[in-house]
Amino acid sequence: MRLALILAAAVVAVPAAAEAQAMPRPERSAVSMAMPEYQADTALRAAIESAARPAADRARDGFRHPEEALTFWGLSPAMTVVEVQPGSGGWWTAILRPYAQATGGRYVAADDLAALEAVEPGSADMVLIARAFHNWARQGRTDAVLAAAYRALKPGGVLAVEQHRSAEGLNVADTAPTGYVPESYVIQSAQRAGFVLDARSELNANPKDDRDHAFGVWTLPPVRRDSQDGRTLTAAERAAYDAIGESDRMTLRLRKPA
User: Fold this and answer.
1) How many domains are contained in the chain?
2) Domain CATH for 87
3) Is residue 167 part of a domain?
4) pLDDT tens-place string over residues 6-43
5) For 67-103, what is each residue's pLDDT tens digit?
6) Contact 152, 123 (CB under 8 A)
7) How far from chain centre, in Å, is Cα 155?
8) DSSP 3-state assignment of 44?
9) Which stretches within 113-255 are classed as H helix?
10) What is the pTM of this model?
11) 93 and 107 in contact (C-beta within 8 Å)?
């Protein structure tokens, strides 16, 4: 089995302006394709296929590609993995915690910035951030979270990102309330913290997602919001949104320099 990785050969320039500015389109002219060998991790496969995982979680595997994503990010046995704000239900937690237990690793759930800042500096092999940048962009907290993630990681450690992706060239102040942010916003914010872009993947891309939804990304599965502020979706609208599936998402691997 092979995973398609989109490797970044150039680093995007860091803007001097504030977080909420419109972000330019990242330079992709130097990006190349590579097809490295995929080595199956039996412990990871067992964690993903475990009957202990909630059925609702397992039903989403076709949209979130847990085995492929974690392999792309470089998960391996005995790692210390910190997940930032895993949220209610902990979709990734249900895979990462048993995997760590099975392989002699350690899983840490950093539920807020204070918990992330409390992680021993240089102790983590991987910090995972999934679907949170739109919240931090609205709160002006992105730089603080990424600085804490950088401190927590070992030299050479990985910042793994999964995030709803807006079109490029848009102002993050406009897109974040809908749940989406430009890919360049995440990359450039991480670069300000000291990270380097290691690779991009289109593993979680969804070309059917035009980001034009009645209630933002929460209109789509799995939230499937049907009403808000006096507006209620018709049955036809609900069916059309369900047919899109989950959001178009960036999947990024950034690294703390060794």
Assistant:
1) 1
2) 3.40.50.150
3) yes
4) 333 333 333 333 444 444 444 443 343 343 444 569 99
5) 999 999 999 999 999 999 998 789 999 999 999 999 9
6) yes
7) 21
8) helix
9) 113-117, 133-139, 142-152, 172-175, 183-193, 235-244
10) 0.85
11) yes
Angle (nearest 5°) at CA 48 between 44 and 51: 130
> Is residue 134 assigned to a domain?
yes
Give the chain's radius of gyration (CA, Å): 18
Name the phi and psi angles at 129, rounded to 5.
-125, 115
- Residue 185 structure tokens: 């916003």
What is d(CA 46, CA 99) in angstroms, rounded to the nearest whole number?
Answer: 8
Chain length of the chain:
258
128: domain range?
Answer: 5-214+246-255
Can you say whether the dihedral through the CA atoms of 220, 184, 255, 138 is positive or negative? negative
DSSP type of residue 46: H
Q: What is the average per-residue pLDDT within 217-228? A: 98
Is position 184 within any domain? yes
pLDDT in tens, 205-217: 999 999 999 999 9
> Which structure tokens are listed for 35?
């097809």
Q: Under a CB-based contact definition with an 8 Å cutoff, are residues 37 and 2 in contact?
A: yes
Residue 237 lies in a domain: no
